[in-house]
Amino acid sequence: MALRMTGISKSFSGCRVLDGVSFELQPGEVHVLAGENGAGKTTLIKILAGVYPDYSGEISWDGERLKFKSPAEAAARGIVAIHQDLAQVPSLSVRDNLFLGRERTKAGLWMDYRAEAAEATAFLKEFGVEIDLRRPIGEYPVSVRQMIEIARAMIADAGAVIMDEPTSALNAVEVERLFAIIRELKSRNRGIVFISHRLEEIYRIGDRITVLRDGSRIGTEDVPALTPDRLFQWMVGRDVTGQFPPRTPSPGENVLEVRDFCVADPSRPARRAVQNVRFDLRAGEIVGIAGLQGSGKSELLNGLFGAYGRPPGGSVRLRGRPFRVTSPSASIARGMALLTNDRKRTGLVPEMGIVPNMTLASLRRFSSWGWMKPRREASSADGYMRALSIKARSLRQEVGTLSGGNQQKVVMAKWLQTEPRALLLDEPTLGVDVGAKHDIYRLLNDWTGEGKAILLVTSEIEELLALSDRILVMHRGRVVSEFKRGEAGRERIIQAAMGA
Amino acid sequence: MTLLRSPLFRAFLALLFVVVLGFIFNAGGSFLRWDTHRDMLRQISVFGILACGMTLVIIAGGIDLSVGSVLGFSAVLFALLSLRLGWPAGWAIAVSLAAGAACGLVSGGLIAKFRIQPFIATLAMMVFARGLAKFISGGQKISTAVLRPDGNYGYADAPAFFSFLNSKILGQNIAVVTLLFLLCVAVCGVILARLRWGRHIYAVGGNEEAARLSGVPVAATKLLAYGLSGFFCAVAGLCQAAQEVQGDPETGTSYELTAIAIVVIGGTNLLGGKGGIGLTFIGAMTIGYLEKILSINAVGEASRLMLTGAIIVGAVLFQKYRK
To answer: Which of A194, A409, B214, B224 is disulfide-compatible with A360, CB 3.0–4.6 A?
Structure first.
């Protein structure tokens, strides 16, 4: 009664990305698929979901051989994938998205809106999601949209649901809700393939785990039987001592002094996303910001950087001098840098090479009288490639074709080139594999060692606890509590973030 | 394998394909003569100059539908100033070029400052500039024709600049307009490959939000791209006026389509962020040879249009799917 993939191999333009991989999914189990970016996880599940019809090896379900030519065919047989970039039409309503491609009709021609609405309402009630079915799905946060994708899989009566990093865009509370839904799916005897880079999640929700590395299967094991150290070793192929490098902070002078800071909600300017926030950030310090989605933590960073165009309220002093927030270019000139939480949309120019991406924020340094100095650019970029250990074929490789971790490092190099004093980092390890995460943690330590100040937003609480010298917790746009390193654990921070 | 993936090489293959067609259908050997090639270059030059500006605009993530009309307006303005009002060539040229650039800057301003979609803003400018051309000319062609005392029309001599623009130099081997086209290509090449502004153009077209957050002056980048496109339109307008020895308010109609076709057939991505002026130059040659081959083989206009459409699709598909 299982879904089996046997001896799956796949090459892209002569480059072998999967080499004889086998994978098995039992009904009612959560099977974690782990490995670094580029290990072949995504390729494997895309084969399973019918995205790549061209592969060698065999897929069978209950002993019956299957060969899908398209995702639609796989879905028709009950295998549904929920991808990272949700395949939804933002302008269509929640209901229309739920039934997209599976519209309920009368006589195969007329839309049966009433049947769709009834079915949708029933499903969403079961999942405990309360939303207006008629509103465009683009108005809802990613967490809700993901629930809709899962509901869609249930409407398709999927026997196997594949979730590719479903928690990467969710906060702690939303993760709990997702896990409740996953348990519900388990109890209905569905099989779930679960991909995550977050260790604690793997151990909380996984039943079995299969680790891939460089396109090969390293092993499959029951989750409780696999220690984190061995899991790391399987994934990375070398010993990683401890998940987080040790940190000895030495705060210096005040870099950022924020008082009564207010930011208007970019989508609804009448509302305030950040209200009367006050904090200091010192040189050599990492201040972490915790908060749920909509708490204003991301808006705080964007507002400080001047990303919204509209001037924020309150006062900011940068290294003792008053700083009027106007535009990104003005902020960069004064030594601020913002690493956004969505590198594809707001961080990289995917079709440009590594060099121009790295120098984009500091082009004045690499030109005189408007003329570019390509050699100076290339040698500087080359230095950062080494310093940040970025893996790429060459300096000219398009950044869109790099793995998530390496893309993130390119964005980091872009900001380092501007020689910033204050780094605003919004989810710096989002969608980054374990090895690269470890590199990034080390880099943050290096930078604070050089006297840079870091304001860090991350949804991974373990990461927040391990990296931050101080933690500010935001709730509905306000800073509601502040903790020193070691003062609060996971539970207290989640409680504070929920407004308790 | 990497060679086949290079856009420049693929554009070149498309050109080669058309040239091979020329050798096969050589119209009794006329394709093999040098002056056929020289004339092709002269005939495509005006379109090529428009395509240079179009390339910058498209790489910056926009489109300029107004190029044909701005060309017409500049041609009429130049004819009006130099033929009818008798301005010295230098002043007439300067004012016409400035007027073209101003048209582009207005489109650019609407797009960059008021965030009107490029398609809409330049569509409006296309209609407006055509109206402007008709307004300043009173709807009539402005030519050197003069009414003689005996009641007949005669033609006065056009100013020297007209015949210079319309002449061929280097032993009659290359037209002045072709040299201007090559100059425009060179200017765009320098902008895109060497100037900071060029880097801004690619970045804005590739990911506007990332560029803005990196401190790139997005509005100025766009404004200047449309401004330069308008300037190139005026350069093309002067050439057009010189070749026709008049300012025809209808001239340049639908030229924007040919300019876009040249950019696209060269392989520059209409979505922006990718492409180059070398591609556009090859694209101009491809379209030029195509037209030339069809005309020396005396293919009728109806079949010529249909074949051109089909071959554009074929060439683009060829570039896209060749592996």
So the answer is: B214
With contacts defined as CB-CB under 8 Å, which chain B residues touch A361?
214-215
Angle (deg, nearest 10), helices B277-296 and B255-266: 120
Mean pLDDT of B268-276: 89
Question: Nearest C-alpha of chain B: how many angstroms from A433?
Answer: 23
Q: Is A329 within 8 Å of chain B by CB?
A: yes
Domain of A11, in residue numbers: 3-236
Residue A299 lies in a domain: yes
The percentage of chain B sitting over the pLDDT mark of 70, rounded to a whole number, equals 96
Based on the structure, what is the number of domains in chain A? 2
pLDDT value of position A368: 92
**Domains of chain B with CATH codes:** 2-321 (1.10.3470)
Domain boundary among A236, A267, A289: A236
Assign residue A385 a region (left: φ > 0; alpha: ψ between -120 and 50; beta: otherwise): alpha
Q: How confident is the model at residue B323 (pLDDT cuts 50, 70, 90)?
A: very low
CA distance A121 to A24: 34
What is the C-alpha separation between B257 and B107, in angstroms, rounded?
18
Cβ distance of A348 and B210 shorter than 8 Å: yes
Write the residue in A327, A350, A367 that is nearest to B207 by C-beta: A350
Structure tokens at A421: 């004093």
User: Is the model's pLDDT at A241 over the cut of 60?
Assistant: no
| pLDDT at position B76 over 90 | yes
**What integer best gives the mean pLDDT of chain A?**
87
Contacts of B234 (CB under 8 A, 6+ apart): B70, B71, B74, B96, B97, B98, B99, B100, B101
Instruction: Report, as an integer, the average pLDDT of A485-499.
Output: 82
CATH number for the domain spanning A71: value is 3.40.50.300
Is the ipTM above a cut-off of 0.85?
no
